[in-house]
Amino acid sequence: MAFILGSGSPRRLQLLAQLGVHPDSVRPPEIDETPLKNELPRAYCVRVTREKTEAVPAGTGDVVLCADTTVALGRRILGKPRNAGEAAEFLLALSGRRHRVITAVAVRRGDRVWEKDVVSQVKMKNLSDVELNAYLATGDWEGKAGGYAIQGPAGAFIPWISGSFTGIVGLPLSETANLLRAAGLPLYQEAAA
């Protein structure tokens, strides 16, 4: 049985290591992540995760894990910004407000799929122009849903969360551990030598 991580996220690799799980292979799937018309953020996140899981090639006994993290402001999905201008737009929309961070996780082994999604609430402080511009200059917004990562410099902008910190980072550990156990993958193993 091989364990395959269907994600190129270094954060997810680090979080899996906390469970003592080290993928035999990393295979980020290539899928269209465009939201469907009128698709709500939670449904979008779950659908994309399921599609990622189906897109990763694996043997029948292999365990595949995929996840997706979506930042939602009301019904609006804030994906990964295409450029600094869009990152600024996202951060200004989030500034001084609460928003949701949804992370869906799916684990596949053969024809069986185990899924879970976790919704966390996040409050971002009012950002000054100086803070916004300094943050954008770090480049930390690149490749991050909503244009920020709570575990990076933007953590200074987050005075309050309710939910799963690791879910906000990109992989809710408690739920992920339960899914991997259900699929028969042992946790807390030493890294392969």
Question: Any descriptors?
Answer:
7-stranded mixed beta sheet, 7 strands, Maf protein, 193 residues, single chain
Please specify the SSE layout and strand pairing.
Blueprint: E1 3-5, H1 10-18, E2 25-26, H2 41-55, E3 63-73, E4 76-78, H3 84-94, E5 98-109, E6 112-123, H4 129-138, E7 160-162, H5 165-169, H6 173-182
Parallel strand pairs: 1-2, 1-3
Antiparallel strand pairs: 3-4, 3-5, 5-6, 6-7
Uncertain residue segments: none
The domain tally reads 1
Mass-distribution shape: globular
Beta content comes to 15-25%
- Rounded to an integer in angstroms, the radius of gyration calculated over CA atoms is 17 Å
What fold name goes in the CATH topology slot?
Answer: Maf protein
Structural class: alpha/beta
Distance between the termini: 17 Å
**What is the CATH architecture descriptor?**
Alpha-Beta Complex
CATH classification, class level: Alpha Beta
Helix content: 25-40%
In total, the number of strands is 7
Main beta-sheet annotation: 7 strands, mixed
